[in-house]
Amino acid sequence: DQTGDINFLSRLTKPDIAIITNVGESHIEKLGSREKIAEAKFEIIDGLKDEGVLIYSKDYPLLNDLTDALKNPQYEMQTAGTSPENDFKISNISQTENGTAFEMSDFKVEIPQLGTHNAMNAGLSLLAVGALGEDMKKSSGKFNQLQVSSMRMEQSVHKSGALIINDAYNASPSSMKSAINTVSEMEYSKKILVLGDILELGDYSEALHRSIGEHIASIDQDFELLTYGGQAQLIREEADVTGSRHFNELDELSDYLKGMLNSEAVVLLKGSRGMEMERVNSYIW
Fold first, then answer.
1. Is the pLDDT of residue 254 over 90?
2. H helices of the chain, where?
3. What is the pTM of this model?
């Protein structure tokens, strides 16, 4: 969460393969900007072996700026992402009953976890498989053995028939927008967003919470929105969702949510770890 952390770990481990999955806003309170976050993550090359491989996505211009500034690196660089500039193109991402499907250049991949961001992570991990000399297409079948971590796009069906997506382990503005995008693509007529504060954003907190509301407003979907916490109120203000509600107590929010649930509903629970949004999942039973 600060400059020098990854430098220490990279020099300690001297990795053969280094992967940077994304550049978001996590730790922006301490690091100060997305540029500084990118620089801190790029410390992963500090201990990378000369014959090693750096894997990242050209979808992030801040990483492109850092790699372009390198002078004759000895290690290899490989990229994957949705941008055509990548070595391997990730495309046709869709949400399925079993998780997420996508195409990785010339073959199809399915993972038992929801989320475009998880498709990206899977694609980058396949580049690591290739760097180890294994067949990426063949190895992609192993994803069906993936065990979904608790509170990371974790799915459960409520007694009402509603699908609950518990993504309450943590949150950044980027991951919250991605989770909202995932819900927007799902085949449910009633899409309920239950969003809590994103913590540790420092001076950027108001602007970033408002950006999430703007993101919701930009999607051509009829969402229902319930917010909890001091800053999440800003999401509600910018989203301008008809009939949205803000709550100062999570049990009150949960009581209200129970009356909204039916088999046509999908519910997203998302907020920072300190907000404990997963409590909603126990309150509504």
1. yes
2. 5-13, 28-31, 34-41, 61-68, 116-131, 136-139, 173-184, 205-218, 232-239, 250-258, 279-283
3. 0.89
